[in-house]
């Protein structure tokens, strides 16, 4: 007796529509997870205002770091992708949403800079910083550098 292949029930009656609905559903779930993650890791109160205050210096820092051939390729790719995201008019969270609308850019910049510091070290970031010492101190607080500065390198 020949076995028939197991067929899943179709939601719409068309394989293509089912596939499209599955992709849209997966993208929606991914977006919701990313929004929840951004809400959890966002800087609180005054730190968010400080992040927005030093944003022009941070953008120059990211551009300088991305152009530095001495940094690992992975780091430069991350920085290039960050610059591309910041240049795009489409945001992860639309700008009309209060607080998080503009904060998503700052949060992503902070996350990428944390990764850059882990892979390239504090010296690379400090040598490319275009702003004031107070601005760098703010950047250190935002990225957790102030906690790392007291720990010896591993």
Automatic annotation (TrEMBL):
<keyword id="KW-0812">Transmembrane</keyword>
<keyword id="KW-1133">Transmembrane helix</keyword>
<dbReference type="Pfam" id="PF06803">
    <property type="entry name" value="DUF1232"/>
</dbReference>
<keyword id="KW-0472">Membrane</keyword>
<dbReference type="InterPro" id="IPR010652">
    <property type="entry name" value="DUF1232"/>
</dbReference>
<protein>
    <recommendedName>
        <fullName>DUF1232 domain-containing protein</fullName>
    </recommendedName>
</protein>
<feature type="transmembrane region" description="Helical">
    <location>
        <begin position="20"/>
        <end position="41"/>
    </location>
</feature>
<dbReference type="GO" id="GO:0012505">
    <property type="term" value="C:endomembrane system"/>
</dbReference>
<feature type="domain" description="DUF1232">
    <location>
        <begin position="78"/>
        <end position="110"/>
    </location>
</feature>
